């Protein structure tokens, strides 16, 4: 499987990373180099093999469904590049 | 115990005993490291030095010692990889996008260390978001390996991604450091800097407060000058944590207590698939020597097979980017981190902030991850890679029916020159060929210095163990360390 310029533009858009037009072609080549190498996984017969869902044999824990943290808007917005009255500021999204 | 002439030459174990018995104060010890760090900025091992915090913590430790209250790491100065969130202290993950991020909370692992009395010297440099094997992807410029080849002035990479921690430990800029390991990021830099590093079993240390890369693979671990020091530090880092549902509630043993028990009767597996075509003969020779050392101490050497080994690296380069693309979606230029200027539309704000904030390797991996998770490709890539993980883990399980630990090389070669492997991502990825299998299977792996190349550069061996059997891994590593008698240190050229 290989990607073309349109696919790279599409996945850059999905990933929300601006990609200048002159970077598209080199990225196509880099990704295709990696995908060609990854292709070898196709040699392996994986029929009937379950995909790994946990690296160690361990059952996920359950806990009581209650709020244990939060409610500190000041701390949460402290690192925001732009904030006002404990709100995050974004460009206008509604006309 | 014999005290070294300079306090920075202490091992963690010796410093612990010296501080606890008041042969040296934490203030004296910490001052010595703070000064050494200032004189070693050429190495670029630290993104942030925290001398004021260090001195305050040292004084608090000395006050406790005066009252007879000595905790396990009381007054011992450590360096922290800049992937661990430290409350009130800038935490960058080696990225521009977090270059001004000041966490309002502390990671569980570092909190455990402070609760045990440790002193923070600063935050160490690393590959951006832990993606790299040479430290060259850091927004804060590469770290320089304290080691140089014999009769050479060429700067070498310290490995990665925990390259700053490895350089700091190797150059005696701290007693020990924390690292994280997603595909080899503790063990590969440890091996190429002549230091010890262990990636514990997945779930042994809490991941809470560690900037996430690939959540099913990431684990924290210690980087130290001796195996004993790794045993001491790991015990304090490990814990079960309600904030990380994958941290495991299995008691943390006293690894130091069983360290000298030897390898008599231990079955050591040699996986034939770790013999690479085209690997330098020195790597194979050292591996063989390692097996002989263990055999001479009473271990039984067993040939084993891990047939899916060659698929580990390609499977990793699907799983890790896929998880990274999801984890790194949080960097949006809105809630924290870098925000692009002069943007009037929300999508453009995301796209520009992320394009400016992420470096080339991180962008590449996010795109790979986005692609393999996108509609229509999930089964062909991600689901298949996760099935390969099942097969790789099964290989290990079957091998461990015949042996107790595995012995392998740690890296395919010694430290290389800055810039040597930047043109081709695949040649960089191959650095992790011996380490990445362990992350995919969730097992513990230890890198221990075992010898020097003809050019005088350090090489390591790796011990792989069963899940949660770090005690045996460390014990076998200690036997390698004893036999190798690796006493070499880099010449301190950077202080000139």
Structure description:
Chain A has 95 residues and is mostly helical. Chain A has a domain at 5-42: Orthogonal Bundle (Histone, subunit A), CATH 1.10.20. Chain A has 3 helices and 2 strands, in the order H-H-H-E-E. Chain A has a two-stranded antiparallel sheet with strand order 1-2. In chain A, strand 1 (83-84) and strand 2 form a beta hairpin. The radius of gyration of chain A is 22 Å and the shape is flat. The two termini of chain A are 42 Å apart. By secondary structure, chain B is an alpha/beta fold. Chain B has a domain at 12-265 and 404-495: Alpha-Beta Complex (Amidase signature (AS) enzymes). Chain B is 35% helix and 12% strand. Chain B has helices spanning 12-20, 26-38, 51-66, 108-115, 163-170, 187-192, 227-237, 281-296, 312-327, 346-357, 360-373, 379-399, 425-429, 436-441, 470-484; strands at 46-49, 77-81, 119-124, 176-181, 196-199, 219-224, 267-271, 300-304, 405-409, 445-452, 458-465. Chain B has an 11-stranded mixed β-sheet, sandwiched between helices. In chain B, a hairpin with a 5-residue loop joins strand 10 (445-452) and strand 11 (458-465). The radius of gyration of chain B is 21 Å and the shape is globular. Chains A and B meet through helix 1, helix 2 and helix 3 of A and helix 9, helix 10, helix 11 and helix 12 of B.
Summary tags:
heterodimer, A: about 100 residues, mainly alpha, Histone, subunit A, 3 helices, B: about 500 residues, alpha/beta, Amidase signature (AS) enzymes, 15 helices, about 35% helix, about 10% strand, globular
Number of strands of chain A: 2
Strand order of the largest sheet of chain A: 1-2
CATH fold assignment of the domain at 5-42 in chain A: Histone, subunit A
Radius of gyration of chain B: 21 Å
Largest interface: chains, residues each: A-B, 52 and 73 residues
Q: What is the distance, rounded to the nearest whole angstrom, between the alpha carbons of the first and last residues of chain B?
A: 31 Å
The CATH architecture term of the domain at 5-42 in chain A is Orthogonal Bundle
